[in-house]
Specification:
Layout: H1 3-18, E1 22-26, H2 45-48, H3 56-61, H4 63-75, H5 86-96, E2 102-105, H6 111-115, E3 122-124, E4 127-134, E5 140-142, H7 143-151, E6 166-170, H8 179-190, E7 194-198, H9 210-216, E8 220-224, E9 237-239, H10 243-264
Parallel strand pairs: 1-2, 1-7, 2-3, 7-8, 8-9
Antiparallel strand pairs: 4-5, 4-6
Helix pairs in contact: 1-10, 4-7, 5-10, 8-9
Bound molecules: nicotinamide-adenine-dinucleotide and zinc ion.
Length: 265
Amino acid sequence: MDSDLDTKIQLVADMILDSGRIVVFTGAGVSTESGIPDFRSPGGIWSRFDPDDFTIDKFLQSADTRKKQWKILVGEGLFSDVEPNKAHYAIAEMEALGRLDCVITQNIDNLHQRAGNSPGSVLELHGNMKRARCLDCQTVFPIDYVEQILKDGMEEPPCRKCFGTLKPDVVFFGEALPEKAMEAAARHSSNCDLFIVVGSSLVVQPAAFMPLYAKEGGAKLVIINIGDTPLDKKADVLIHRNAGDIMDRIVESVKESVARAHQRA
Ligand code: NAD
Ligand code: ZN
């Protein structure tokens, strides 16, 4: 038994029960237990693919690069055969319990929505791989459309409306982050009472500013991440463990307290 860990879990559960507005901030680490590698850990995506290939300039310059990227991102099913894990379900449960203002995520895997968070409660800072967008007419298509075209043997999907160039609706290196989502994320972070980081190294800017906005606004900060982060010292509760197990235990503890309160009432 790790009594220090038990105490921290109970402490976070109590913070969740006592806070009005709770923001959960997630990075690649919330999805590694679903089998999607993160960027920086050994064996992560960048030890298999070349990040230089995922720049917007390369994507725009060459049909060969676009074909290669569609193959990696959609053809090889990087995001298709994965299921949400305990951490995603725990975060969805927080919304069901009325204990969540929003999830701000750097992930593009759609797993928060798949776990049950309402689309309106998920702010996507880097887009979502379930969509493709036409760079010419801006029409958005479900990724199934691209998948089918690749299955039919075409290497680059054309826009069905204007035959323009489609791009995964995610932020590539060299691209600006979606302004509306960034503004909303900053606002929700500044106005929350409790900010919980789950599985992010907090080194990618400007997304990593969100916990600082929260702290400046007077919120408590909880960090649940295997590795160290530059903001560890600022955390009110710091747990260097797996997100799935810890988030599950925290939310179970919240539910037990809610049930006890109902029994007493
Ligand atoms: P990151 O790779 O920089 O950091 C991930 C962090 O998660 C690491 O500090 C690691 O210690 C921690 N971690 C790994 N597994 C964990 C687990 N089971 N429980 C708790 N912590 C765990 O990722 P980042 O900070 O999110 O930023 C990198 C970028 O990667 C983001 O911009 C995101 O868009 C992109 N990305 C997304 C996905 C996805 O959609 N699933 C996958 C890879 C990368
Ligand atoms: Zn088009």
